[in-house]
Amino acid sequence: MTTEVFAPAKVNLTLHVTGQRDDGYHLLDSLVVFADIGDRLWFKSAPQMQIEVTGPFADGVPTDRRNLVWQAAELAGWTGHITLEKNLPHGAGIGGGSSDAAAVLRAFGGADHALDLGADVPVCLKHTPQRMRGIGEVLESVETLPELEIVLVNPRVVVPTGTVFSGLRSKQNEPMGDVLRSFGDAPAFCEWLASQRNDLEAPAREVAPEVRAALAALDGALLARMSGSGATCFGLYTAGAAAAAARIAQAHPDWWVASGRVLS
Predict the structure, then answer these.
(1) Which of 37, 120, 169, 223 could serve as a FRET partner for 242 with CA atoms 20 to 30 Å apart?
(2) 72 in helix, strand or coil?
(3) Where are the alpha helices (DSSP H) in the chain?
(4) Rounded CA separation 85/75 (Å)
């Protein structure tokens, strides 16, 4: 029997860096959503662990215990053959590896160990909008977001997370606030989002000027912003995301561009 699971792209609609712990971990306040764009995994029980990686971003993905999927399966107490279809670029600020690992924990158990695999893994256990605080372990469901379409754009550059955090001018910034408002429609929600921040966007643009170009390409969106530590940028739409993605892909054939909807 084969089990199939979906690992969606994680998108940080906001990312406020609010402090840094003594152990070096940064404290965040982030509104996280997921898109119906992502990786797929297939599992078949067997006596020994084995990972096969396919898909457009298979190159460079480890097929041994270095892979978070392998580690998650061990934590869940499951052994067998795993096929991982990598449709999301890695190191792109949209939680590809973390979402893959969370998919294993959802399928086979072991969610209590999610934080052991990385700060982004706990939020990926659910595919609904969430507010993420602390280093990623403090999660609060958000149930008031309007329906949205989304375009993801990655200019195929790698932005080292450590370098981006090091470039922050301040690591003590204001959080989003105590209460997220209810929004009647997408334009009102995006207007509120525009008053929030991704504190990592400015240092990421210094490291990779291509981020600025990706944001400019999303000029027709209600809101365009970088996700996570980059270099993937997103645009939010009420409609027309597929057409916008096709236009961007035609203008930039060397970029990764995908469209879909925000999961709720």
Answers:
(1) 120
(2) helix
(3) 68-76, 96-108, 114-117, 161-166, 186-194, 201-207, 210-217, 241-251
(4) 21
Cα 96–74–52 angle (5° rounding)? 55
- Please provide the DSSP assignment of 33-69 as one string: EEEEEEEEEEEEE-SS-EEEEESTT-TT---STTSHH
pLDDT at residue number 161: 87
For 184-234, write each residue's pLDDT tens digit: 899 999 999 999 999 999 999 999 999 999 999 999 999 999 999 999 999
CB 58 within 8 A of CB 89: no
CA atoms within 13 A on the CB side of 33: 24
75-83: average pLDDT? 97
| Burial grade of 132 (CB within 10 A; 0-12, 13-18, 19 or more) | buried
The two structure tokens encoding residue 212: 């600025």
Cα 12 from chain centroid? Answer: 6
Token digits of residue 35: 């898109």
Report the C-alpha gap between 123 and 127 in whole angstroms.
Answer: 8
pTM: 0.96
Catalytic residues, by residue number, are 10, 120
Residue pLDDT, tens place only, 85-125: 999 998 899 999 999 999 999 999 999 999 999 999 999 99
Name the token pair of 51. Answer: 């990972």
